UniProtKB/TrEMBL annotation:
Superkingdom per UniProt: Bacteria
Pfam families given in the database record: DUF4168
Claim: Signal is one of the keywords in the record: yes
Signal peptide: 1-25
Name the UniProt record assigns to this protein: DUF4168 domain-containing protein
Location of the DUF4168 domain: 45-120
Keywords from the UniProt entry: Signal
InterPro entries: DUF4168
Length: 130
């Protein structure tokens, strides 16, 4: 389950990074500011739940997009699919109650902080009914 969540987070970042107008990509100043804020990063239970909800939605989207990307006739068609996927990912994240910046911050924290990763894993299991 945790692997799927990290895959969703990485897929969102990868798709967004490849799109023409990457909303999930961060500029260096923003990334630096978030790195400095990592020490004071406070994550609520509601944010964890929203992150898991968004990650599950993104994972489903990525599974849907992959065959379309492979079947795309050229790079232009792939770019169009990526742009559509990026917009859908933004909507998924926002519908879950997070901003894209918050989603990325939580994903980054989960990669570097075992306690955050454990909270996400526990919430993912709870949402899955396990």
């Amino acid at each position: 389950m945790m692997h799927k969540i990290f895959t969703a987070a990485l897929s969102a970042t990868a798709l967004a990074g490849a799109a023409a107008a990457p909303a999930f990509a961060q500029d260096p100043a923003q990334a630096g500011a978030e790195a400095g804020a990592a020490e004071t990063f406070t994550l609520t239970d509601a944010q964890v739940a929203a992150f898991v909800e968004a990650a599950n939605g993104i994972n489903a989207l990525v599974q849907d997009i992959q065959p379309r990307m492979q079947a795309a006739e050229d790079q232009e068609a792939q770019a169009q699919i990526q742009q559509e996927a990026q917009a859908e990912m933004e909507t998924i994240v926002q519908d879950a109650g997070l901003t894209v910046v918050e989603y990325n911050s939580i994903a980054n924290a989960a990669r570097t902080d075992q306690s955050v990763a454990a909270r996400i894993q526990a919430e993912a299991q709870a949402q899955a009914g396990n």
